[in-house]
Design a protein that fits this description.
This protein is α/β, with parallel strands linked by helices and about 475 residues long. Helices cover about 55% and strands about 10% of the residues.
Amino acid sequence: MEKAMDNNYEQYKRMVKFIFSVIMLSLEMSAFWYVWLHFYNEKMETPYNRSGHWLMVAVYGIFLVLFNILYGGWKVGYLRTGNMIYSQFLAVLCANAMAYLQITLLTKSFQNIAPLLVMTGAELLMISIWSFLSTRMYRFLYPPRSVLLIYGEHPVAGLMGKIYTRNDRFVIGETIHVSKGIALIKEKIHGYEGVVICDLPSHMRNVILKYCYEKGIRTYTTPKISDVIIRSAESLHLFDTPLLLSRNNGLSFDQRVVKRGMDLALSMTALLLLCPVFLVTAIAIKLYDGGPAFYVQERCTKGGKVFRIYKFRSMVVDAEKDGRSVPATDQDPRITPVGRIIRATRIDELPQILNIIKGDMSIVGPRPERVEHVKLYTRQIPEFAYRMKVKGGLTGYAQVYGKYNTTAYDKLKLDLMYIQNYSLLLDVQIIFKTVKILFMRESTEGFGAEDAAAVAGGEERNYDN
């Protein structure tokens, strides 16, 4: 009975989100209908009739749906209001760019873009109002869940801090150590709407998971490395006992060929288009302190191979004069004024396009780490080498869903999710989502002073994998 009620509740929640999305989509399509009908249809040699107008609006709606799916613009209750406005605005910009291309092809000439720009401004206003109202209404209908956090031997302060940043979705009602015993934990579980399971021994975690499943109580579990590998396994039914197949060999030959072709096509196109950015950036760096524009570093890629990565220099010339690697902190004095701008906009990473053309890197893949960092992290986490089953990338799953200062263990899990679930479509999604995070401050957030010192000093940390 309890489980059935929860399922109905979730079904109703999805319906509320769907209604919110349809309202926004209808408003945006109505705006395009007006602009197309009054400013562009008359520019055609043979203007469309009513069915033609419906077709134009339908195609525009498809663009909006596709780009909102890519950027997650309609994830009411999942994204914060500001993030949702940003995501939808990116989707609208892309949809409007495609609509303008379509209009240009239909009218056989470049048309005045002003009506579309005005429409974009109106859509931004609608998006802002819609995001604010839908978020407030959603939170009124579905307040944050009170959860019980169950933890093991490892500290949970980091995870708790992250949960507290999303108090619109979770409220930690109580924490309990697994040593208190399964009987007491089961008793406390019934007083909460959800359970967060953090780094428990597998046998105890399984007992709690099965109990929550039986009682229809949702669980949020921090995955182990083995969980990530099993999650992508293929089901086999060769006999009456199901098998899970994990191939564990990185990308297949055909995947590597297609990926390399896309890398070459996109990187060479980008190099041609971004030549002015390269030139202006190099001049700005040179004019500031007279030092070299580029910075070369040794990094590790597929199979542990070491290569020289190219970056625009964002720090003072002697930033690591003692030879030790010290990760950048939030207010690092070594970063130059020019460096702060190019780091915030990721322009400092653009010279890696040359590494992609050479074949050292791919556009999408785990970020290649410095040699000394690989050695340090591998001592702490032997499984860290798993992320080198594929070439390092200019951007990646961990860059889209993590931050600059995300821990090595969490980056490893994110990168393994990419490797184990690789597809060309996933690469395309990551490329589009990379555009989204370019101007999100939290994605470039530096290490805290303590964490930076730990990495610089080669401090060992233990992880339960």
